[in-house]
Amino acid sequence: MKGPVVLLTDFGLRDHYVGVMKGVILSRVPEAVLVDLTHEIPPQNVRAAAYELAVSWSYFPEGSVFLCVVDPGVGTARRALAAVIEGRFFVGPDNGLLTLVLRRHGAFEIRAVEAERFSLPGASTTFHGRDLFAPVAAEILRGRPLRDFGPRIEDPVLLPFPEPEPVPGGWRARVLRVDRFGNLILNLSVRELPFGSFRVEVEGRRVPLARTYAEVPEGEPLALIGSDGFLEIAVNRGSAAELFGEDPEILVLKE
Hints:
By secondary structure, the chain is an alpha+beta fold.
């Protein structure tokens, strides 16, 4: 028995989709532990799913199986993948969902799943989460080695994520993710900040650096290192996305 199955989807919880995927797993592995990472990825937003997965997976124990279904290409010729990275398993479509995990970790094995072997009988072309990916996750839990699922591949789909752009005196940063609080999470992590002392300007307005949201007056913007280790723009008890928009001009400049 391996670790938990961790589900990440854009299905929401209104419909039966998440529950029935769990049912498929439990019908094969009744003792499985199921964890909902999130089901509130914006519909078809693979980039958002890639970010949520990348900042979450390392907090789970080795042996965990990440069942990731944000799949706008369901039913097409896109491949289905089963992968292992640092002792954790990943199952989902080959559409770039693993981009940020793969970018940071060079040691991995990825297999293209032979769908005709592992799909449920009478599988639909519109719900591979239930008919293909959940059965594969269950098989991994039962101890099936990754090599059984199909041939090894070296060319998974990778999405282009923006890199910080050099400008005189610093960098132009871009928004990677807007969270539900309206915080703008940038493509500069604390490990990648190019200098120790810096200032942040958003649309030409300097915003103060802080350690917590409450260090500025209510309604005022700030910059801080968020809980996932990325620089972010926030507003104390407000929304940076509403104040500045979701893709403002952001400069990180050496002091």
